[in-house]
Design goal:
This protein is 34% helix and 24% strand. It is of the alpha/beta class. The chain has one domain: 3-Layer(aba) Sandwich (Rossmann fold), CATH 3.40.50. The strands form two sheets. The protein has a six-stranded mixed beta sheet, sandwiched between helices. A four-stranded antiparallel beta sheet has the order 2-1-4-5, with helices on one face.
């Protein structure tokens, strides 16, 4: 079986006019299997978020290939990439990226509507997720009235509404206090244990060791280490 995510000799330079310009991502090859939880770590500016954006087809590599679910996402048009993301990739961000003028329920429903789900199916899925994430009582509430942990749960529900095979999380606990960060980490672990493939960018080594199978260390855009993490009892 092919990996769900496959990067081969991926390089990303933002200054293509200079031959000697440093690469944000430099000749990275890596694979992520279906059902795996992988943490990507490294210092600020090391290329972690750029790598996530390349996997999500939010950015294009300067060289190399990026495959997700056997699709060359690096060769998709902007429209094709957006369509692919809606069907195959859920994204969680450090600062939630919720639409403040929409209720919790409408924030969660939006990707389903953009993805062409029927209104009935979308509402059923959104209700299921709000219940599962214990935020159903906030369905008609606007995000500004929620705590950071509650807002991140809404963001996770939104990321999962289209049932994507791949979940990408960029510092999902970085804007939260310790208690809420622990709760969100445990929630991600629960999702992975149920079969959700997860790639997590984090500065937190404890989070990586507790909630991932592998830790990929990125330094100056290159893979410095790719080793098993401390996660036990979840899917291999």
């Amino acid at each position: 079986m092919s990996p769900l995510v496959q990067l081969e000799h991926v390089t990303k330079k933002y200054d293509n006019l200079r031959v000697d310009a440093a690469a944000a991502v430099d000749d990275v090859s890596a694979a992520v299997a279906e059902g795996e939880a992988v943490a990507v770590m490294g210092p600020s500016g090391s290329g972690k978020s750029t790598l996530l954006n390349l996997i999500a087809a939010l950015d294009r590599p300067t060289g190399g290939t990026v495959r997700v679910a056997d699709v060359r996402v690096d060769s998709l048009s902007e429209t094709g990439a957006a369509r692919f993301r809606r069907r195959h990739i859920g994204m969680i961000f450090q600062f939630f990226n919720l639409l403040e003028d929409m209720t919790v329920a409408d924030n969660v429903l939006l990707p389903a509507q953009l993805g062409g789900q029927s209104r009935r199916r979308a509402r059923a899925r959104a209700t299921e997720l709000l219940d599962r994430l214990q935020i159903s009582r906030y369905a008609d509430t606007y995000p500004a009235r929620l705590s950071g942990g509650e807002r991140q749960r809404v963001a996770i529900a939104r990321a999962l509404v289209n049932e994507p095979p791949l979940l990408l999380a960029d510092e999902p606990t970085g804007a939260l206090d310790t208690a809420n960060g622990e709760a969100i980490g445990a929630l991600l672990l629960e999702l992975n244990a149920a079969g959700q493939t997860l790639i997590l960018v984090t500065h937190n080594p404890d989070l990586a060791q507790r909630y991932a199978h592998r830790v990929i260390q990125i330094v100056d855009g290159r893979v410095a280490d790719d080793s098993p993490a401390g996660l036990t009892g979840a899917r291999p």
